[in-house]
Amino acid sequence: MSRIVRFLTRRRGGKGWHWTDIVTWTWLVGGLLIMFGPAVWLVGSSFKSPAALAEFPPTILPYVTQKVTVEGYDKPLDLYEATLEDGSTVVLAEVRRIGVMSQMVDPAKPGEIIKVNIAKRTPVREMSFATENYTEPFTHFDFVRYLWNSVFVTVTATLITLVVNSMAAFALSKYEFRGRTVAMLLILATLMVPLSVIMVPLYSIVSALGLFNSLWGVILPTVATPTGVFILRQYMLTIPDELVDAARMDKASEWQIYWRIILPLTAPALAVLAIFSVVWRWNDFLWPLIVLSRKELYTLQVGLSIYSGELNVQWHFILAMTVVTMIPVVLVFIFLQRFITTGIAGTGLK
Amino acid sequence: MTKTKSILAALAVGLLASTSALAGDVRIMWYSDGVEGEVLKELLDRFMKENPGINVILDNVSYSVVREQLPVQLEAGAGPDIARVTNLKAQSQHWLDLRPLVGDAAYWDENFGAQADWMRPDGSNQISGFMTQITLSGGFANKTLFDQAGVAIPGKDATWDDWAKAASEVAQNQQVPFAMALDRSGHRLTGPVLSYGANYIGADGKPAPLDQGSKDFLTKFIGWIEDGTMSKDVWVSAAGSTYRAAADDFINGQLVYYYSGSWQVPNFSTKIGSNFDWVATGSPCGPVNCTGMPGGAGLVAIKYTKNPTEVAKVMDYLAREDIVKEFSERTLFLPAHKGLLAKGLDFKTDDAQAKEALNVFVSATGSLSELAQKLPGWFWSDTFYGAMVTRVSQAAAGEMTADEAFTRIDADIAAKVKDSGL
Amino acid sequence: MRMDESGRSGLSQIAMMPIHFLMGVLDAPLRWLQRATGINGMAAFFLLPNMMIFGVFVLLPFFINFAYSMTGGTALFLPDRSFVGADQYARLFDCGSYIDPGSCAEDTFWTAVRNTGWFVVLQVTLMILVSLVTALILNRELMARSFWRAVFFFPVLLSPVVVGLIWKWILQRQGLLNFGLYSLGFDPHVWLNDRNWSFAATIGVSIWAHMGFYTLILLAGLQAIPKDLYEAAEMDGTRPARAFWRITLPLLMPNLLVVVVLVLIRAVQIFDEVYVLTGGGPGTSTLYLTQYIYETGFAAQLRNPGLAAAASILMGAVLVVLTLLQLGLGRSEKKGGRK
Lengths: 350, 422, 339
Hints:
With 350 residues, chain A is α+β, with helices and mostly antiparallel strands. Chain A contains 15 helices and eight strands. The longest helix of chain A is centred in the middle third of the chain and has 32 residues, at 143-174. Chain B folds into two domains: 22-134 and 296-349, Periplasmic binding protein-like II (D-Maltodextrin-Binding Protein, domain 2), CATH 3.40.190.10; 135-294 and 353-420, Periplasmic binding protein-like II (D-Maltodextrin-Binding Protein, domain 2), CATH 3.40.190.10. Helices cover 48% and strands 14% of the residues of chain B. Chain B has 18 helices and eight strands. In chain B, helix 2 packs antiparallel against helix 13 (321-331), helix 11 (264-272) packs antiparallel against helix 15 (352-364) and helix 17 runs antiparallel to helix 18 (402-420). With 339 residues, chain C is mostly helical. The longest helix of chain C is centred in the first third of the chain and has 36 residues, at 2-37. The radius of gyration of chain C is 26 Å and the shape is globular. Mean pLDDT of chain C is 84; it is low at 1-8 and 335-339. Classes of the chains: A alpha+beta (350), B alpha/beta (422), C mainly alpha (339). Chains in contact: A-B, A-C, B-C. At the A-C interface, helix 2, helix 5, helix 6, helix 7 and helix 11 of A face helix 1, helix 2, helix 4, helix 5 and helix 6 of C.
């Protein structure tokens, strides 16, 4: 036990609390709350009924009014804690409410109606998870199809990204040719053109190529990522040219050099790019929404947007499905997070 | 690499093969505010059982797809075969004329003729489709709050000022944050603006500059937001012409009087339940009349379809009296079908308040002004609404005065008219 | 651990077999190609796929966009549009005074420019500060460092729409923050109705969402600084603060430069999160350039793609200038350091 305490309180130099230790732990614990708190809140809210979502003050956990079946009444009645005229507090079930007066019965003595002003009663609440927010979309929401489309887009786009970006990065790092700087600058310039800005022209191109309402219309415009080329090139620059030269002496073809020598050595950077690509493509929303308007082609992100109507947004479904779509990304992250940090550390971003 | 590509190409072909259009396919692009998508799906399933040769595919989309992406598709000569659309007039050149295709054109004219002009090019007698629902703007009052405050709910002929006074009194007495709210929408603003005697349409059919009637109500409205009578939240919650509703505040009992429309009834019925009593009130009166604004979503056939006969069959089916009846009763939508309206509907709800409210809206259709009935079929309505929302909300946020907002509204609309080249 | 890893690599070797086979099959035609082009000619081959996709889906739209900016009308496709020369640019620049957006014909554009300017200045500064402090803290000897790293990185995984949604539920009138204040006995405040708070919220949320990425880049740089430099400094009796300015910061400069450039580019382009969170409100106080372009060109009822394109070309031009300036500064500093 004392070892754990010592471990927990281990700090700079081990001699007393330095002010930097206090700053560090405040920062970390504050960070933990700010970074995770909102997500926890999201997950909690996704289990609330539509009425509970609109409620203020909100509750952290989902609550509903407790119901009770009373003899002589067909439907279960809501339970309230009512303050009677003599000042005593009892738990009563509400039969109906007329204006500001509530007609209530004691569940134990169903015969007698007690009138209570509605300001004098508070609902008895119990925790209840609105799991139908999750189950209902599954019945009128082709989840498996959308999931497959999302997986297809994510995996294909990531594979193509890895291949074409690494080839380009190889050319830009291991060859001397005219226009190399220009090519590099052109690619970097892409960073400056956000999608929302070139949407109309891009749309005309995609529709001219017949890629409209096709998953390829979602995949292709995204795969030539400038960030990917940049990260991979920086990493490949750290691979000694002597390796390439030695391979050429051994009569290896350029293609063999690329996939036998360069690619394996670039593995950590490729892992980073793969992870980012998966996250980006999985989360893509605006562009798929524009390209895909047939339900059999929807990705998950597009699928969950159908709950936004003209006059109404069905938040309870959107929140629940948002949580579902977050799960794969979180899993990828949990299992691969060590690659992310070590990979970035090694990508020559230094 | 070439090999990889050919493999990918093969994959692509495989993927496309499963999605390519068959001869009897009819695609419907549909957005939902509530359960209507599910109801429609059931109706279509029944249709397909009766007509095995026709495969109807229902693409549920978000409203933003209908608003932003469908126009792009249409302009490219593509798109679904049938779509549920609100911007009916301005895109009417893309709708298919069903007149020669439907079984009985006289039935369509008889029952849907009143709104046919909302969705066809000016001067034609085209049958483009029918309204899946008629909406009517109008107010809702939280009766329980009025009762608790001991304030009488203003009567049928009450004016906007009467409502403002009563609602403020209730809000003060009951300590709720909002007395009144009006959706962030030009369509919603237009009801009261018309009741102050405004006219948007100029002599040449193009937008006229804001007249005194519009300015009177808008000035009052901006003043109400400033002094807290009207909820500020909805109006400042976005820039541009984005739609926002105050429904949640009303559902939550935080709002005394809410000016929205008939489509809120099913929403309120499920979310308010028995938490408090609410009533629909129709539209308050201005100095000139007591009009609300009609509107709604239409189901239209699209010109670029490859299977017009099948499309007409589907449309004929969905417009059938018994189908419209079932659809409206289950969704709690007001139908457009004239014959059906005459016979009356039995809305499928055990919520007496909702039924009562729907009846209020049905009877309020009688007090619509002539202009209000004309605006949904006017090409420039949305341009007008957009400019009004954008600038009024800036004035509401204190970024400009009401007069500056009026100048900007006129300038914005003039610029749009000029851009369009019409 | 070792066993585990060798097992995994064995498995992955099996998984890689078809890929190796494929690559081997490709080798013969490519050798032939190499004989035809020479070794350096192969560079073109390697660049080709990326550049083709890039050309069709990025460069071409960019040029088409430029063409759009010279046309007028509401038609969406280029052939249907009329040529108007520099009219759209003239309309954007039609102002009484550039300091007062209210005096401009396109007042919304200038409001967006002004808002974006303030946003970039404040967000970039704060983002760099927060990421740097976090990286410095994570670089200390910490228990469970990888856990803490994950904590700060986690929001990077969320889609912008989700980020906007989450924070909307927290900041709105009936949100979590007001609930907290309410239960502590304070008066709730309508954060998103308030111009300043709303603006601050867009900055805070965008930092929340992206700081993890930059923290990691900076952390990578910090970990690459040799420890013995600090030991030597300590032996010389250098104070820690001095060591930070003399060792840490100069050696971190290249990473810091990358971060500044990336943060800057992303800040100018801010859109999705804010669009969901505030929609540009209250009024137009968080209306940023990309939203203006998106709404003018794509989402408005009567869209004006020409005006939107002109605005986007101007935005691109500003970005290029800013980036070149940054890179130029970085290069001259590097040269200075080499002396």
